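subagent[fold] <- orchestrator: predict structure for attached chain, return tokens only, no commentary.
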Amino acid sequence: MSTTIDTAMVLAAGLGTRMRGYSEVLPKPLVPLAGKTLIDHALDRLADAGIARAVVNVHYKAELIEARLQERTRPAIVISDERGLLLETGGGIKKALPLLGEKPFIAHNSDSVWRESGVSNLKRLVAAWDEGKMDCLLMLALTSASIGYEGKGDFSLESDGRIRRRRPDETVPWVFMGVQIIHPRLYEGTPEGAFSNNLIWNHALLKGRAYGLRMDGLWMHVGTPDALSEAEAALGHGVRGE
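subagent[fold] -> orchestrator:
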């Protein structure tokens, strides 16, 4: 059962410490990739998927991000200011909940880019959302079809769509690629200040209400200069990445 989702949160408050050579001058969301900034890749894709409004959190070199976003007309942008304290993923979203409203929303990391292979992955994610059985729906990429990721995976994906965390002694094929739908109720009872979204995932996993959806295409985690170069090459082969 799909619910109309028209709001997103774009996470753009990180320090970008792994993007040395760029982050001394620019916040990572403003690093250019294939002719546009990372945050514009995210916002363009959200707008194309029918998202009318995006809350963007800012911290490091916040004024540069704000200046760039003032040039955009879609989606409508609202700033969540974290200049005073960096709140991590969970704390940043919790601070922005009054701006996000009471309905489920998309949360999108600003350094997550992908090359579509068919139907819009964001539209597929929204269509798959079922508020009756889900508290969060994570988009997952195959580790074997990813750029900029080196690890043993994050989750296994069960036949009914539920997800299970990787055990320390195993390797799993799926990695969370920085895009998800979250219901605000998951943040009830969470601490004030900084915390990771891993905390709310744990709550949803315990209740059997954490689900995953396979991304179609090539995911690019643009977190380092090397990953940026690989993503440039992947997007330069005549295939739309936005």
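orchestrator: received. Logging for downstream: The mean pLDDT is 92. The longest helix spans residues 88-100.
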